[in-house]
Amino acid sequence: SFSTDNPNDHVGNMKACMSLLPNLAVLRLEGPDTAKFLQDKTTNDVAGLLPNSALYCAWLNPKGRYLYDSVMFRQDSDAEFMLVCEADTVPNLLRHIKITKFRMKVDVADISSDVEVWSVLSRDRGLLDGVVEANSELAATLDPRWPEGQPTPPLGAMLLRPKDNPPSISSDVAEVDSSLYQALRMVQGIPRDQVDILREQSFILEANFDWLQGVNFSKGCYLGQELTARSHHTGRIRKRLMPVLLGPMEEGTEQRPSAFDRVEVPANGALFPSYLDASSTLDLPGEGLDITADGKRVGKMFGSSFNVGIAQVRITESLKASEAGITLECGGCSVTPLVPQWWPEWPLTK
To answer: Is 0.70 surpassed by the pTM of this model?
Structure first.
């Protein structure tokens, strides 16, 4: 809960917080063929995953289009894993696993009635390491959506906890509503399954899985590998998910970043950029609406909260429009694409 009448007074100085993530579910996979099954069906290198550690991965269809994503925890052996996924996708993911495992000895169960998912957000690596160590009885990890070169994961630590048993954390880490976690996720440009990346439609490289350590290009074959590998080695990724700042179409007096500026990293160690307005009453555009520049489609809006969101942006067209002084628009809002700090290059060469 906020300590002042104005949420921004609290959010602007927040350096650490924790949230229960009720939108996430936990599946347990176990059996002698579990590691091989996951290696064959997901985009990351399960064979290289050490005991009591985690990775980020996607599940694809045979044509290389996105189905689901997961944070995958390996337990002490290669016969037991836990998957964190969107709760709404559980019935379909369970069905997909049961259909594709054929005669492999893999048992799968939804254990979400006994286990819940928490996030601890901070830019303090020492704090995050301590949180993981103190909450590892079920599973805990630095969030594996962790781009190379970043000192801490953009989404802090992920903890699996027994139901109704909050994490053991120092008292100066406030518990906040999951809407703030979702806002930071959007500010960082990290997609949410079935909201920002769509089943049977999206390609994972357009959702930055290559930069979020969500795909391994050196592992052996997996379902949907061919198109993903070809796009990586020979293709140009013309559209990518990007964080966006939303605002009214009329010019305001407040300072705002310019289109394609880097996402702000607060100098005081705070989590949230100064332009996040946690008291915003902006009428947000709906998911799936086109983003236009002078009437021409240059992207598509996905999730949004407060005054931030995630959008699929056609890089070249949007950049040209912005350089020409044309405001991008969606659903009556101005749309300002921003470049995450963790993107390895800008401007893009691929």
So the answer is: yes
